[in-house]
Write a structure and sequence with these properties.
4-stranded antiparallel beta sheet, about 0% helix, mainly beta, single chain, about 120 residues
Length: about 120
């Protein structure tokens, strides 16, 4: 993340050794472009194979003049993710907070299902 000209942003690239890491996103319109923005999930939402729009690269927040997407400075959020291992795909969630100035993200909690190809509820351990 950072500041690039008039754009302030916080982004993420989840890429494991095997190139399979992904975060749950939703395409959002930002200054005329469709960009992948991390979806803030609720406690007990399910992260699973039918969850849509897992992407390797995404924005947590982006601001350009009056155009703002994401969750900078809005408190704790839960994000869904998945990764592949030798035994299959694992699903998980992380609790994060992004500062209002877009400069620091804190991962406060994280969990994933140890069983491959099994859904996990946000908040479950």
């Amino acid at each position: 993340g950072g500041i690039y000209g008039a754009v302030t942003f916080a982004n993420c690239n989840i890429d494991e050794l095997n190139g399979s890491g992904n975060i749950l996103t939703s395409p959002q319109l930002f200054d005329g472009l469709s960009i992948p923005v991390a979806i803030a999930k609720n406690l007990n939402d399910t992260i699973e194979s039918s969850s849509l729009n897992f992407t390797k690269y995404c924005y947590f927040a982006n601001k350009y003049n009056a155009n703002i997407v994401g969750f900078a400075g809005t408190g704790d959020k839960y994000l869904g993710f998945r990764f592949k291992a030798n035994d299959g795909t694992h699903y998980g969630w992380m609790k994060v907070s992004l500062t209002a100035d877009y400069r620091a993200i804190t991962i406060k909690d994280i969990a994933y299902d140890k069983r491959a190809n099994s859904p996990i509820a946000v908040g479950a351990k």
